[in-house]
Specification:
The chain is mainly beta. It has helices at residues 13-24, 51-72; strands at 29-33, 37-47, 75-81, 85-98, 101-111, 115-122, 128-151, 156-181, 186-214, 217-227, 229-230, 234-235, 266-267, 270-281, 284-288. The strands form 3 sheets. An 8-stranded antiparallel β-barrel has the order 2-4-5-7-8-9-10-14. A two-stranded antiparallel sheet has the order 1-15.
């Protein structure tokens, strides 16, 4: 308490003890976790910029449509769809170096939506074509970094953070198709799945707004941006797409762009909107500020 307590008249020992207790529990006293350890858990909406992959699938579908029209006439169509928003989960363990600064490590998992394409056609002499492509991707970031925090530890507080490290990505190309050429008695169908993987450096910038629910628990919402571009992925196994005995993809081959020897680039960077809970651990102590 900032004023000096004066005793007027006869004050009982019990009242004096009560006043001393209130003075010790001054509003400037802040509860601190002596260990400074916290665990954060979250779910997230994650928006990745997989534009090159999306355009590649769209180009494949369109080329198949154009080829069918050129050779067989009739009608044909193609379509494709981007990944959109994906859902992610993650956790972070951190330790305070001071009331306003600390360090931590985080790991997460993100599954962006599938990138799909299809082509179909019906020729002048009843030829038919149906083909589909799907690329399913996932990402595991493993990061460490620093954070800076301000505000009321027992109420609303803000945290800014920078985490850097590595991301480990995967992409599986599923493709299937069927073509029927009745004039020459030819019919073929195929289905295959080709998994690939790769890694890259990553950085995550974020700002978090938290509100304490109890001395040991807080709820938060966090806005972040991830920089993570995997320049190339490599096939994880040998794949024979059309079952002709020759491998169309071999383990270690670069996942290439359609009609090119250039590597297909997977840009997982983009906006992250996270929400979750923070749990504090350790023995509590009280630190009084002047």
């Amino acid at each position: 308490m900032k004023g000096r307590l004066r005793q007027h008249g006869r004050v009982s020992a019990r009242l004096i003890a009560l006043v001393c207790f209130l003075a010790a529990a001054d509003s400037n006293a802040i509860a601190k976790d002596s260990s400074g350890m916290t665990l954060a858990l979250w779910g997230a909406a994650e928006f990745s910029d997989l534009g090159q992959v999306e355009s590649d699938v769209a180009r494949i579908a369109n080329e198949e449509k154009e080829d069918f029209l050129y050779y067989f006439g009739g009608s044909a169509a193609s379509s494709s769809a981007g990944s959109g928003a994906g859902f992610g989960v993650g956790l972070e363990i951190s330790r305070a170096m001071s009331p306003a600064m600390g360090f931590g490590a985080r790991v997460g998992y993100c599954g962006p939506g599938d990138i799909t394409g299809e082509a179909s056609g019906h020729g002048d002499f009843n030829e038919s074509l149906n083909e589909t492509w799907k690329i399913a991707t996932s990402l595991v970031p493993v990061l460490g970094g620093l954070w800076f925090e301000g505000g009321d530890p027992e109420g609303i507080h803000f945290r800014g953070a920078l985490f850097v490290g590595a991301v480990f990505g995967s992409a599986t190309l599923d493709q299937s198709g069927a073509i029927d050429l009745p004039l020459i008695g030819y019919k073929e169908s195929y289905s295959s799945s080709a998994p690939a993987s790769g890694s890259a450096f990553a950085a995550d910038f974020s700002g978090r707004l938290s509100h304490s629910l109890t001395p040991k628990t807080a709820i938060f919402i966090e806005l972040g941006y991830l920089i993570a571009t995997i320049k190339q992925m490599r096939m994880d196994k040998d794949v024979d797409v059309d079952a002709d005995g020759d491998f169309d993809y071999q383990r270690g081959d670069v996942f290439e762009r359609s009609g090119s020897t250039d590597a297909l680039e997977f840009d997982f960077g983009g906006l992250r909107i996270r929400g979750g809970l923070v749990f504090s651990f350790g023995k509590s102590e009280t630190v009084t500020s002047n």
